[in-house]
Design brief:
The protein has 350 residues and is an alpha+beta fold. The chain has a single domain (3-345), classed as Sandwich (Jelly Rolls). It is 26% helix and 19% strand. It contains 7 helices and 16 strands. The strands form 4 sheets. An 8-stranded mixed β-sheet has the order 1-2-12-9-14-6-5-3. The chain has a 4-stranded antiparallel β-sheet with strand order 8-13-10-11, with no helix packed on it. Strands 4-7 form a two-stranded parallel sheet. Helix 1 (3-10) packs across helix 2 (31-47), helix 2 (31-47) crosses helix 5 (152-177) and helix 3 (60-74) crosses helix 5. The radius of gyration is 19 Å and the shape is globular.
Length: 350
């Protein structure tokens, strides 16, 4: 079945769960096993736009250390965190306060605070050539001092590079799933265009205001079912969720919210703007939200992974036809991501 036929076949099916995909065969020398794995990924991308991955290769202790320093950072006094406010940067790096972002214009704000950063070598280099083509997103990360939060930078970058490695493992599988050569993305992902956030959701207790939730209903792409503002995103998001706390929900074609609870030993992958554009919306970028009504604080760590910032976003030929004409104008990946930050945070860095 072709990619277009698969999209038509799944177009009206309402998923009722998020599939779990085992990545154990991702590095197999058996091409049939790799193709079978890619077919499972394609089915999930066409139907739900979300899937869990197990056997992803990121050690638990690496995640635990990242969580530990994140919790210490968010417990700092407000004035210490606000010294790193991303509104002071030109590339949306740094800290943002509770309710400072709003993914759904029908809401009053997103009930979380966060810290965002991008590519940086763990051992700093004088001349980091990976950052020479960042265009609209060019600029260094900002960090709290070692005295304020010991090992903050080291612990987060260690997890960041492990998650980037997982993203690099996924790209050939996604290419095969798109009926493309497995190295299709190789020359488009040389400079690790990846942004990571650590997010802290305060407990939402007392009277519940349905216009203030953890993250408002949004897509990580342009295919919108209800009025919402797209969140900053790239090809896909790799998400770690805190165990034991249900918050993430995904909207299916029948407008039912499907829970995507944390599953021990897994990460969640959801598709975003860039893959929706690459596939002319054959792969889904699905509306989702996070609601922390647990009565306790919650943490999550998403990595937004995309093509290099200087790569033009345009549908691949296999996803364009007379019956499915191209939906989007071509735009550079960096310019597109910057525009989505401006929508979400309500200001421009120009």
């Amino acid at each position: 079945m072709s990619l277009g036929d698969a999209a038509n076949h799944k177009a009206n099916e309402a998923f009722d769960h998020i599939p779990v995909i085992d990545l154990g065969a991702a590095k197999s020398s058996d091409s049939d096993q790799v193709k079978l794995l890619a077919s499972h990924i394609r089915e999930a991308c066409v139907s739900a736009g979300f899937f869990y991955v197990k056997n992803h290769g990121i050690p638990k202790e690496v995640i635990d250390k990242a969580l530990s320093v994140a919790s210490r950072f968010f417990s700092l006094p407000s004035e210490a965190k606000e010294k790193l406010d991303m509104a002071k940067s030109k590339n949306f790096k740094g800290y943002h306060n509770v309710l400072s972002s709003n993914n759904d214009p029908m809401n009053r704000g997103d009930l979380h605070e966060g810290f965002e950063f991008g590519w940086e070598e763990l051992i700093p280099k004088v001349d980091d050539k990976k950052r020479q083509n960042d265009g609209a997103m060019a600029g260094a990360n900002v960090w709290p001092s070692e005295e304020e939060v010991p090992y903050f930078r080291e612990s987060l970058l260690t997890y960041y590079h492990a998650a980037v490695g997982l993203g690099q493992l996924l790209f050939p599988l996604l290419a095969i799933a798109m009926d493309l050569p497995k190295d299709f993305f190789s020359d488009k992902t040389r400079n690790s265009a990846a942004l990571m956030k650590v997010l802290h959701y305060p407990p939402q207790t007392g009277d519940v205001d349905d216009r203030v939730i953890g993250i408002g209903a949004h897509t990580d792409g342009p295919d919108v079912i209800i009025k919402c503002s797209p969140a900053p995103s790239q090809c896909f998001t790799i998400l770690w969720q805190q165990p034991g706390i249900q918050a993430l929900q995904v909207l299916n074609p029948e407008h039912q919210w499907i829970d995507a609870p944390p599953i021990e030993g897994t990460l969640v992958v959801n598709l975003g703007d860039q893959l929706a554009r690459w596939t002319n919306d054959v792969f889904k970028s699905t509306i989702h939200r996070a609601i922390n009504r647990s009565g306790v604080e919650r943490y999550s760590i998403p990595l937004f992974f995309g093509v290099d910032y200087n790569v033009p976003l345009e549908p691949v030929p296999s996803c364009v036809s007379k019956e499915r004409p191209s939906k989007y104008n071509t735009i550079l990946a960096g310019d597109y991501i910057k525009s989505k930050f401006e929508e979400t945070y309500g200001y421009s860095t120009k």
